[in-house]
Amino acid sequence: MLDLRRARVLVTGGHGFLGRAVCERLRQRQPAALIVPTHAEYDLIDAAQAARLVESERPDVIIHLAAQVGGIGANRNFPGRFFYANLMMGVNLIEQARVVGCVRKFVQVGTVCAYPKHTPVPFQEADLWNGYPEETNAPYGIAKKALLVMLASYRQEYGLNGIFLLPSNLYGPGDNFDPQSSHVIPALIRKCVEARDRGQSEIVAWGTGQASREFLYVDDAAEGIVLATEKYEKPDPVNLGTGQEIRIRDLAALIARETRFEGTILWDADQPDGQPRRSLDTRRAREEFGFQATTPLEAGLRQTVGWYEALRAGRRPGAHPT
Predict the structure, then answer these.
(1) Which position among 140, 171, 232, 308 bears the catalytic label?
(2) What is the reported pTM?
(3) Which run of H or of E encompasses 145?
(4) Helix count (H) and strand count (E) of the chain?
(5) Alpha-helix residue ranges (DSSP H) falling in 169-314
(6) Positions of the chain with pLDDT lower than 70, given as ranges
C-alpha cells in the first residue's frame, strides 16, 4: 500500500470539478506535499511545459485529471480539439514520468466513453476493445484509451507503475452548468430551474430520452481515485461506478421534481441520444481496493440542485457538501 503521508503528490486538473474533490480527499490523507498547478502556470499540451512541471516538482505520484471535455454537443463540435488536447496532455506527462525517474505511481483517469457503442450491460473491463466507441464521443474516448496502451507499454519496457481508471458519468456540486458544454445532469437542472423561475410551461431535452446512463457522485469518484492510488498496482483498467443505470427520461423526471419544475418535458428526437446504454460492472474496484459508491442518485441530485440554486441566488455554495 502506498503511504501518501510520505509522498509528493501532483494533481493535474486539481482546480476543476473532479480535481477539487480529489484534492480534498488527498488533504485528509495528509501527503508530504500536494502540488496543484494551474493551466496558466503550465499548459500540459506543450511538451516543454509538461517537462518543466515534472522536473521542477519531482513528484512521487502523478494523478492526471486535466482534460478538455463536454457533453454530446461539445464533443460533436470539437472532436479534433478534444482528441489532440487529451492525447497530448497524457502523452507528455507519462513520458516525463519516465524521463525524470522519480515517479513511483502514475494514475490516469480515463472515461466511460472509451467503451464500444454497443457494449453489453453491465460493461466489463474486458469489453473495452470489442468495438468502436459511440461516434460523437469517439475522439475523446479513443484519446483516453490510447493512454491505457501507453501506460501498459511503459510498464513493460521501463517499469513505470501506471494504473488506469474508468469512471462512469460524473455529477455533483461544482459541476459545469454552461449550456454550451455541460453534461446531461447540469444541463437539465439549469433548464428546469430557469423555466420554473420564468414561469415557462415546457422545456426541450435532447434525444428520445430512451438512452440510459450510470451516474457517479463526484465525492464518491474522488474517494475511488484516492483508494486506487493507495492500493491498486495492476495494469488492468478498473471501472468506477455504482452499477445502476437510469433512462434519461426518468432522470429528467427526477430532476424536474427536485427543482420543483411542474411543466412538460419535450424530447427533440432530431438530436442524438449518444450511446444507447451505459452501466458498469464494478466488481473489480470492490475486490481490488475496496471501493463502493455510497451516494444514492436522488441524494446526489438534491445536493447538486441545492448547490446550483445557491450559486444562482448569489450565495456562496459549499463546494462539496456530504
Answers:
(1) 140
(2) 0.95
(3) helix 138-158
(4) 10, 12
(5) 184-198, 218-231, 248-259, 283-289, 297-312
(6) 316-322
- Complete domains list, the chain, with CATH: 4-171+214-244+277-294 (3.40.50.720)
CA distances from 261 to 33, 50, 233, 253 (A): 46, 46, 47, 9
Which sign does the torsion angle of CA 233, 9, 36, 170 carry? positive
Output the DSSP codes for 231-267.
Answer: H---SS-EEES-S--EEHHHHHHHHHHHHT--SEEEE
115 is catalytic: no
- Give the residue among 40, 82, 91 at the shortest CA–CA distance from 64: 91
Could you read off the pLDDT of 6-21 as tens digits, one per residue? 999 999 999 999 999 9
Residue burial 112-146, b: 16+ Cβ < 10 Å; e: rest: bbbbbbebebbbbbebbeeeebbebbbbbbbbbbb
- Amino acid at site 165: L
Residue that the C-alpha cell 441545492 belongs to: 306
Residue 313: strand, helix, or coil: coil
Rounded CA separation 138/142 (Å): 6
